[in-house]
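Here is the promised in-class demo. Please do not try to memorize the tokens; focus on the logic of going from shape to residues.
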């Protein structure tokens, strides 16, 4: 029997972890900072998410003997980046993370709740996601207009590398950003590797954050991450049961919440990298997610190094990388939203209201977009 610990599996898993991190850490950082996280709290959030992603990846991979790849919720972080800081500060955001995480775990136990989420039309959930992502995708454009000599080479690198390999476009942009920082004298001095410190952040709760943060975050993570990740696995003829995955990732996310992390969930890109036939025979590909898990844990322990680098960057450089990283996801969400003819008016209303970014009664536009689009979908399909 072929071993799951071959070089192909180890390399695929390590690359999936590194590319996933490089492609999305800026988005998660922007989301945590928007929620009021200090640099230390943001480092803790990044670190605990990677560590719990790694542990859960190893556990689920070994248990199912399938490449059940996990990641942090990039669309969820993008949603957070569009919001104003909660009245109660980062502790209130952590409370919303905890509620949303427990809701995902309960979805794994409660069949009717799981079926209700699965019944949300894909077009509507995709329209909400596209509306959330679009504003972030505009940041590279506005940043280029404000600072072309710094942001321009990063965008150009992303574009040129993307012509040959979409997978490597964002990591190449990250490298280009590092070069521009070094040339411009923005690289932090005395940077050394250190273990990420972790400290308990007592969550606080409010009805506003429950409806405006926790509920949309739950829906975005369930529809655009967990259900999408499951679809990718099924496309490679892997059929793990969803319920235990939701219970594990929901509880792992709940552990992350008091330390500043939002969500651990099924991954789409990482799943595709770990489950495709190039990794090896079908029965051995689960070794790739175990290898990815080990790399995730190491990155989590060293995530504190990322924060001084991000803080030293010129204005809007890191958010610009986040915007470039989300172009593909935005295009995919728009396609899924508007491709079916049925319910396009409802989909458009959901998209427009979400992208407007306005709040009513302290509740963000993603919630209202889904509600208004859902009402129109129900009565005028």
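The designed amino acids, position by position:
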């Amino acid at each position: 029997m072929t071993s799951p610990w071959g070089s192909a599996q180890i390399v695929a898993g390590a690359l999936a972890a590194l590319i996933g991190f490089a492609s999305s850490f800026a988005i998660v950082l922007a989301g945590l900072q928007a929620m009021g996280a200090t640099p230390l709290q943001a480092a803790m959030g990044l670190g605990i998410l990677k560590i719990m992603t790694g542990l859960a990846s190893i556990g689920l991979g070994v248990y199912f003997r399938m490449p059940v790849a996990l990641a942090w919720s990039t669309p969820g972080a993008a949603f957070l980046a569009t919001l104003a800081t909660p009245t109660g500060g980062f502790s209130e955001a952590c409370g919303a993370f905890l509620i949303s995480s427990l809701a995902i775990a309960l979805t794994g136990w409660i069949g009717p709740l799981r079926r209700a989420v699965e019944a949300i039309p894909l077009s509507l959930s995709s329209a909400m996601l596209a509306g959330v992502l679009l504003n972030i995708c505009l940041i590279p454009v506005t940043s280029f207009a404000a600072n072309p000599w710094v942001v321009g080479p990063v965008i150009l690198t992303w574009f040129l590398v993307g012509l040959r390999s979409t997978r490597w476009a964002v990591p190449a942009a990250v490298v280009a950003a590092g070069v521009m920082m070094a040339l411009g004298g923005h690289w932090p001095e005395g940077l050394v590797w250190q273990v990420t410190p972790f400290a308990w952040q007592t969550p606080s709760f409010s009805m506003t954050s429950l409806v405006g943060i926790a509920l949309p975050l739950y829906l975005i993570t369930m529809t655009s991450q967990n259900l999408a990740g499951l679809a990718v696995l099924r496309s490679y003829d892997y059929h793990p049961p969803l319920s235990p995955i939701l219970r594990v990732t929901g509880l792992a996310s709940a552990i992350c919440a008091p330390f500043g992390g939002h969500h651990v969930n099924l991954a789409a890109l990482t799943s595709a990298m770990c489950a495709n036939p190039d990794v090896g025979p079908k029965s051995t590909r689960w070794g790739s997610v175990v290898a990815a898990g080990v790399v995730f844990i190491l990155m989590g322990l060293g995530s504190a190094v990322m924060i001084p680098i991000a803080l030293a960057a010129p204005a809007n450089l890191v958010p610009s990388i986040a915007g470039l990283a989300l172009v593909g996801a935005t295009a995919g969400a728009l396609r899924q939203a508007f491709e079916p003819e049925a319910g396009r008016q409802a989909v458009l209303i959901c998209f427009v209201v979400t992208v407007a970014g306005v709040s009513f009664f302290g509740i963000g536009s993603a919630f209202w977009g889904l509600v208004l689009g859902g009402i129109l979908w129900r009565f005028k399909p």
